[in-house]
Amino acid sequence: MEQHSHITVRGLTHVYGVDGTALTALDGVDFEARRGEFVSVIGPSGGGKTTLLKVIGGLLQPTSGIVVIDGASPEDAQLLKRIGFVFQEPALLPWKTMTQNVRLPMEINHGKTPPDIGATGRLIEMVGLDEFRDYYPHQLSGGMRQRVAFARALVTDPDVLLMDEPLGSLDEITRTSMRYELLKVWEALPKTIVLITHSIAEAVMMSDRVVVLSSRPGRVVGEVSIDLPRPREEALERAPEFLERADRVKELLALGAKRTTTAGRARAGS
User: Fold this and answer.
1) How many domains does the chain have?
2) In which element (H, E) is residue 154 found?
3) pTM reported for the whole predicted model
4) What is the CATH number of the domain that holds 257?
5) Pick from 72, 31, 54: which is nearest to 223 by CA?
6) For residue 180, is it within any domain?
7) Pairing status of strand 21-34 against strand 38-42
């Protein structure tokens, strides 16, 4: 395995048993993310993207293949608090204030020494919610609740941040602005990020590299290096170099759909 890889996945296959029928979600996936790299995974719905994220995070055991995070298993990385999660729904506790929700992982994992006593406050300020510290989730907008989820995921200072469509439930205007807010947080607190998304623009704008999966069973179709300068601003989305990379991602998505269709026809004819 490459020494520079922070996350390494080799030969990952995952099969679900559904009503006595085997359903292959992922088939022989090879994937890696270098330390401090922002990698997006994109592909059709049902192509195994969330399954891949869950296996990397130790939430799901693969049928076969290996996953290593900085030399450790995902389960050990979890125990060492090296992994933070952000999902599409913030899942905040309604009876706790925003500050209490951000602090929750440190309370649950009271055996771990927090980064420092001011970590919660600094993260709240970093995500732009300093004046809403004592607000409850129902008093916050959808975008604000998702910012709380980002801060909560970072409060134990993990090395890896795994995000499953974290902006997917937001309206388009809020979603676009949140991309850049999230990028600012990542630039201030560089982590190894794996982002699951269905948005080509989001993947290209935010990432160092985009990994494209096929339709089910998910296989890696290819990768697109996003070697665009940082920090990135919204005007970049209209630049030829941005559109060129977005077109390449579209081509790989189409190729993945074509391969899956061809394989399905071959099985039907066998």
Assistant:
1) 1
2) helix 142-154
3) 0.89
4) 3.40.50.300
5) 31
6) no
7) unpaired
